[in-house]
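Final report, section 2: Outcomes. Of the targets proposed, BREX system P-loop protein BrxC is the one most frequently requested by collaborating groups, and we therefore present its record in full.
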Amino acid sequence: MKIQQMFKDDIDRKINGVVKVDQDADDVLVQELNEYVITKELKKHFISFFNNYGDAFIDKTADIGVWISGFFGSGKSHFLKILSYILENKEVDGVKTVERFRSKFEDDPATFMLIDKATKGETDTILFNIDIEGSINKDATAVLRVFAKMFYNYLGFYGEDLKVAKLEQFIEKQGKTEQFRKVFEEKNGEPWISTRDAFAFFEDDIVATLEEVLGMSEESARNWFNGTETVEMSIAQLVSEIKDYVDKKPDNFRLLFMIDEVGQYIGSNTDHLINLQSLVEKIGSECEGKVWVVCTGQEALDEIIKTRQDEFSRIQARFKTRLSLSSASADEVIQKRILSKTDDADKRLTEVFDTNDSVLRNLLKFNKDDALLDIRGYETSQDFSKNFPFVPYQFILMQKVFSEIRKHGNAGKHLSGGERSMLSGFQEAAQKIENKDEYSIAPFYLFYDTVHTFLDGAIRRVIDRCQTAADEDRGIKPQDVNVLKLLYLIRYLDNDVKSTLDSIVILMADNINMDKIKMREQVQESLDRLLSQNYIGRTGNTYNFLTDEEQDIAREIKDTSVDTAQIIERIGHLVFGDIYDKKKYRYKIYDFPYDQYVDGHANGSVTGGMKLHIYSIATDDIEKNELRLQTNSKGQAIVVLGDGKYYELIENALKIRKYVKTRNVAQLPKSVQDIIRNQQDEATKYENDALDAIKKAIETAEFYVDGEHIDIKGGDAKSKLDQALEYLVTHVYYDLELVRQTANDDSDIVAILTGKDNYIAGTHPNGDAAQKIEEYLEMQDMKHITTKMSDIQSRYQGIPSGWREIDIAAVVALLIHEQKVTIKYSGMTIQPTDSRLPDMLRKKSEVGKTEITKRHVVSPVKVKETRDFLRDFLDVMDVPADEDGLIAFIIAEFEKLEAYYNDLSSKYEGHKYPDYPAVRDAVRVVRDVLSQKSDNIALIDKVVASEDTLYDMQDHLKNVESFFKTQVSVFDNAVNFVESLRTDLDYISQDTDAEHALNQIRLITHVIDGKAYDYKRIPELNELQSIVEKSHDAMLNEKRANLLEIVRSCLEAIHENAFANEETKIISERADKFFDQKKEQIAVEKSLALLDGMSVPMWAEKDRATMAIESAMKPKSTPAVKPTGASEEKPPVKKEIIKKIARQKMFPAKVLKSEDDIDIYVENIRKQMKQYLQGSDGIQIN
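The predicted structure is given below as tokens.
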């Protein structure tokens, strides 16, 4: 059966591709109405609209706005047009529109009743496309002016020009429309309706008509005609006129403004949006449901205003009825309008499917990685029959093809991607194969011819050039052109169906009985030819259509050279950066670093440990020889990657990256920039595909590990590399298991060092590991090589041990505890109890300064000798018998001695105590012993060699120790006592016994360096000091008595005239305070010399005070009154000469024992005074 004969309706009949709201020819309308398909989605929208619309007949409403949204081709324009016909119930070809829809709602009579009821009254619709009817000049009131224009047109006025429309409206209100038109036609010769669009050319005729019909003067008529003012129109005015119009109609009259493409017209223009909002709001509030506004837009209303939500939330309220259309039911429309089959055809197709079910499933089944799940073939025989000769996935793909072509081609923007465009597309495709039989199906490339007229010239030129090359047999075959068309159609559908070879074969299928293998070969040949001539490009296993510019750039990229080293480096980054990004391989609790290599090139830093080596196709085949691989894999894992396109993919990506860097993209035309940007996206895709290809290559790779060709179990790439490294670890690190007990932190190391881990010597789990290190240290010792702890860490973290840093430290701690090794830091032996030891064994900053050596044991004889000496020397019984314990004991005790002797030495500071050289020598001797504490043997030897010196030192210091325990205070008191009498020595010398005792004290406290000190005399000091103190105290008491007598005598002289008047009283009180202070000083002063010096200032104070009192007692002289005119001459005043003599000089200290002594002393004074008086007026004794 021919395909043409299968359809109920003639497949070759004319069907409009895209519905336009202004197409109203009867033949077009009849077809549109009869063939309009009410899908499930549309039925919901009919119900929603007529429910809201019908309610307005019962209750008044302001919610008269309806917004129909949907992307290009969703059928919104068609739905708007059909809705207008239904509402108006327009009679077309003798049949009312509502009646035509009765059969379409046979399965839903309730909805039809709703529609029928809503259309009983008189309804007028004003249906128009605002993009067409609107003015080119879109000012702020553009929407209002379009509404006004269409309303006036509807009324029969000339809405194109509001000036003319307003004139006609005025004439109509005067009831003179027919008269005006008749008079104008008489004067002009042409009807008014046909000439009003050019009224500006008929001034005289119009002026004359206005004069005759309206009675205007010629001047008034011409002023109106020539007036340049524009007719202003407000929303309120227009709505008022609309309201006046509908109010004159019956109550059930309805007027609907049905406007197509409003969303596109207002776009994101704020003024237009507000204009529409205000207009709809005013119509709703004023007309109360009698006038409706129905708009369509490519976007939903909330999408249009979403960036200005706060400003325009009110407009959403104006359009409460919102209907959103999609193209989801496009296949349903196509199936019913075009593909509906006759009964015979349906029966035959069912037979074909039942016979070839499995063949069809195999033929049309996409690989799971190449297409989405909804890209499917036929499910059932009914599915086959209703879609034949098309495949279900073609409906999905064509919708997306239309959408993508519109996005990516300027001419393509005129496409409508919904059911009507798809309708014509599927009709034309069916027509191309209408003469084929029931085994034929439509290959996808047929759809190219349904869209090619809308495509950019750049696209068509590529296809046309390829067609010409095929026609002229210039390396291209006719099938290649079809493949190229197909590749263009799916150019932007990579997310839905990938343009792989298998996918292309399926999409090229044109017959149920097609040999898929043969077709695959043919398609591959076509792809190869197209690739060779740059009609297409390839990314991994996918193929891409190229425009002329893309071909030129593709050719330049292809000629760009890339170094093999760069490709290898990139493979390394993908393997070790994306697929297997571990820097260390974790095995149990161990983290093993490994070196990363690709084709002999290191990826990242090299540690010298185990290797993971990737061999790509860049490695020579000779290196992949089985024997060589086994040999080279010793100590490493070699992964020989399986076949794959990864190398080519990476090369292509790098070529693109390199090419882009050589171009100044910013200076290139935008079209070239877009291509380069797409190429960069392609490069990213190449890299992603390369990553997938490398993963697969690893999954199918051959593995050679530590000299063996091993079989790795199933798993992904990461799992297989994990298994290879695990195998390598267990073979390379064969000493790993010697560490049977692991450490967690420093506390575990301290526990081992101090023996708190409770293991008996020789039974520790890590004994074998400790033996390994001990053997190595013995070898180092034999070679006289210094070994650092850093060497131990490095050696045993590496192959073949692989121990953790903390576990190595723990094993060394075990050797330390068992006294098998010696640790030195900065030349000093470190004891197990040293708190710094864990850091020395572990810390990076310390291990390089820490030496570890095989321990040399001190001989037992010396140990015994040392212990015996220490028991006696230190007077202790408990001296450790083991070497470490003994060494620690010696160091601890001698450090105590050093501190003790240092303390003694410090007591000499500021003092002259006996035997300081002995103490100083003791410190030196002890330090000399401790200087060998870094070496156990040397320390023991030093102690043994110093025995006699230590004994002598101990004996010599007994007197010193005793001195500081019991005698130092007596010694200090005596020294301080002598110092306190330093100013009174002359007085002490007057007492022979006291002077002798003081000299003895001086002798005992005087220490002479190098001369033995007699400690036995120190007890004498107290008695000698007592003798001196008694004598000195007696002298002090006598001196104090004499001074107090002077105080009494001075005060007596002062008080004699102290109360003569107020002034003398004040002088006396001041003197009293002075002498009170002197009495206090006399009582406490212990220096005879200082007491002696106190008499002079007291006598001086007495003299000052008595003289002041005498002066105060003298009467004040009154100056004589000089007679008037007396001479001013003053007699010269003679200045008195008073000699001042110190009392000490006049009355020297002397002991008088007889009256004769007194007479002589006084006579001497008399003679001196007389001498001083000669040549002076007086003597003042101070």
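The radius of gyration is 63 Å.
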